[in-house]
Write a structure and sequence with these properties.
Blueprint lengths: L1 H16 L18 E9 L9 E6 L2 E4 L1 E4 L2 E6 L3 E8 L6 E9 L11 E7 L3
Parallel strand pairs: 1-8
Antiparallel strand pairs: 1-5, 2-3, 2-6, 4-5, 6-7
């Protein structure tokens, strides 16, 4: 009986010893929300929102034309990290090419991108 009790205690100690997760980090729970990489507002020199512009983001061989989600607000591409150049065109206005690369990275929780939010002013021709 002593051997049985001793064996039982040893097995209990072994099975309980390594199961605890000692890290302080709790696992992140990602949501199903889709986050755009860019949210770009396009205005004229008077601050009026400009609809119908073509806003394009380019990274190497990838390019995407952003969707006008509301008047003068262009969003997209969804959940895509990278280093992008931006062009904005609208008939009757001077084109803009943003030459300093915009870096889209993941959020700290690694679930979604950090949306880059910017406003650009188009000058009429």
């Amino acid at each position: 009986m002593k051997y049985f009790l001793f064996s039982f205690l040893c097995i209990s100690m072994i099975s309980c010893g390594g199961d605890d997760d000692s890290s302080d980090e709790s696992p992140e729970i990602c949501t199903t929300v889709v986050v755009p990489s860019f949210s770009i507002i396009v205005v004229d020199t008077d601050g009026n929102l400009i609809d119908g512009a073509t806003v394009t983001v380019i990274e190497n061989s990838f390019s995407a034309v952003l969707v006008e989600s509301s008047t003068g607000v262009y969003t997209g591409p969804d959940e895509r990290v990278g280093t992008y150049l931006i062009t904005i065109m609208k008939e009757g206005f001077q084109d803009i090419t943003v030459t300093n690369p915009q870096i889209v990275s993941l959020t700290e929780d690694m679930c979604h991108v950090d949306t880059i939010e910017m406003t650009y002013i188009l000058q009429s021709i």
